[in-house]
Amino acid sequence: LEMQSDTPKKVVLYAPTWEGTHQSMNYSSIPEIGVNLVKTLLDDPGYRVIYKAHPNTGSRDDATSIAHQEIIKLLKDHEDGLNVVGGDINAIYPTIDIPIFDNSTVTIDYLTQNRPFLLTDLFHRAVGLSEQPPILSAGCVVNSRDIKSISDIIKYQLFSDPLSKVRSEVKSYYLGNFNYTAQESTQAFIEHIQSVILERDNLMSERNEAVKPTSLFPTA
C-alpha cells in the first residue's frame, strides 16, 4: 500500500459498507456523500486516500453502483488515490492515519487500534430505530453538510483526539479489555467454548443417569 509523495501527507481510509439486502439495512454512504468526500480529500494536497469498499457494493442499488465506479475513476486518475480490492482490511490499519467508516462491523473491529475515526451518519434511513448504537459516541459523526470542512474535522480528531476516553469505554463494551496483539481475546473465546462444552457434557451425563431404565424383572 505504498503511496509515493514528496511531502508528508495524512492517509485517510474510506471504507464504506454496501447497500444491504434491503433498504432498511442500507447504511452505505457511497451514493449520498462518497463521491464528494473522496473528491474533497483528493483536492487537498495534505491527504492521500485509500478506498476499500465492501465487495458487494453496487450489487443491489444502481445509484450506489454508479457512485462506486465514479469514486474508483477519481482514485485512478489521481497520484494520491488508491483503490484496494480484496484482502483483509485489518492489514491496512497500520498504514493509515484515520479511517472513515459507515455503520458496519469493521468500525467495531477498529476499536482495537485505540485511534480516532470518523463515522458517517446515515441513521435517518433507519425507520423505527428506538436508540442509536453505542459505537456512535466513540467516533466523530459526519454527514453531507460536513464534507466542505472535512479537512478541519480530520485535523482536530487527529491532534486533539477528544473522544479518547469515551472510545475506551465503548471498546470495553463491545470487545472487552484484552491485549489483542497477544491474542488474549482468542484465548478467552477458546476457554469459554471449552467451559460450555464441559458444562454440556456434565448436564448430559446427569440427565442420562436420571433417566437410566430399570429392569422390569427384579433380581432374586
What key attributes describe this structure?
220 residues, alpha/beta, 6-stranded parallel β-sheet, 6 helices, 39% helix
Notes on the protein architecture:
There is one protein chain. This protein has 220 residues and is α/β, with parallel strands linked by helices. It is 39% helix and 11% strand. The protein has a six-stranded parallel sheet, covered by helices on one side. Helix 1 packs parallel to helix 2. The longest helix has 27 residues. It starts with 9 loop residues before the first strand and ends in a 10-residue tail after the last helix.
Number of helices: 6
> Which structural class do the helices and strands define?
alpha/beta
Topology pattern, helix = H, strand = E: EHEHEEHEEHHH
State the distance separating the first and last CA atoms: 83 Å
Q: Order of strands across the widest beta sheet? A: 3-2-1-4-5-6
Low-confidence segments: none
What is the gyration radius calculated from CA atoms?
24 Å
Shape: elongated
Strand content: 5-15%
Mean of residue pLDDT?
89
Count the strands? 6
Instruction: State the share of residues found in helices, binned by percent.
Output: 25-40%
Largest sheet: 6 strands, parallel
